[in-house]
Amino acid sequence: MKIHSSRFEQTTALTDVFLGILSAYLAVQFIPLTGFKWDVWAWAFGLLAFSSLLGAAAHGFEMSQKINTRLWMPLNLSLGLVLGLFVVAALFDLSGEAVARSVLPFMIVAGFIFFLVTVFVPGTFMTFIAYEAAAMLFSLGVYGFLTFKGTLPGAGWMLAGVFVTIIAAVVQAVGRAGKSMLWNFDNNGMFHWIQMLGLALLAVGLKAAL
Predict the structure, then answer these.
(1) Separation between Cα atoms, residue 121 and residue 119, nearest integer Å
(2) Which helix (DSSP H) or strand (DSSP E) does residue 195 occupy?
(3) Cα(48)–Cα(23) distance, integer angstroms
(4) How many domains does the chain have?
């Protein structure tokens, strides 16, 4: 299997690797912690690491369209579950463990529904953008409220992390694959860099809540 000939795809794959490494590092930080909240975050970061490394393979190597499509299936499922877990984590901070646990099965089902949409209606990238926007805007409202109330340590950092994640999603949505936004970075490569900043801010907020 050869490395992709496109400089943009090569750069996107490399930034996906960086994002995957950062996500895996954060997952490892929270795995030893006990409690439902930390389990949710560990799974969210772990699944994000998995999807990022799959993304690196999908972008970084020349392959048939059939293989590439199959590679995106577990990737999309992982991303759908990550967004669902993000909502569950925000609900935990807002309303407590009981509410978060009750919502968890529904968000897992929502992640699988998103995955099925990508399977039966291929090429619907905007479906992911809409799903991500709904999850992130909800989380933005939650952490904005908690920052205003001042009841959750690190809420301001969480709010900043969610806001940066939304900016990353906007850059990915409005940019074009294979069109330079900065050197060899297209919309996907820029999304990964901005998302890494968002993850770093979320990590600071989570550390403050320990």
Answers:
(1) 6
(2) helix 187-209
(3) 6
(4) 1
Asked, for residue 2, whether it belongs to a domain, the answer is no
pLDDT score of 62: 92
pLDDT of residue 178: 62
Residue 14 forms part of a structural domain:
yes
| Coil vs helix vs strand at 114 | helix
Answer yes or no: is 146 within a domain. Answer: yes
Q: Which two tokens stand for residue 12?
A: 């996107």
- Contact residues for 39 (Cβ-Cβ < 8 A; gap 6+): none
Q: Tens of pLDDT along 47-97?
A: 999 999 999 999 999 999 899 989 999 999 999 999 999 999 999 999 999
Helix (H, G, I), strand (E, B) or coil at 3: strand
DSSP 8-state secondary structure symbol assigned to residue 150: T
Domain with 161 in it: 7-209
- Burial (CB < 10 A; 0-12, 13-18, 19+), residue 180, is middle
Q: Is residue 1 part of a domain?
A: no
Any idea which residue has 């919502």 for tokens?
103
* 187, 174 Cβ separation under 8 angstroms: yes
For the stretch 130-185, pLDDT in tens is 888 899 999 999 999 999 999 999 999 999 999 999 999 999 888 776 677 667 77
Which pair of tokens denotes residue 78? 């992982």
- Distances in Å between the Cα of 202 and the Cα atoms of 120, 139, 143, 168, 198 are 33, 12, 11, 14, 6
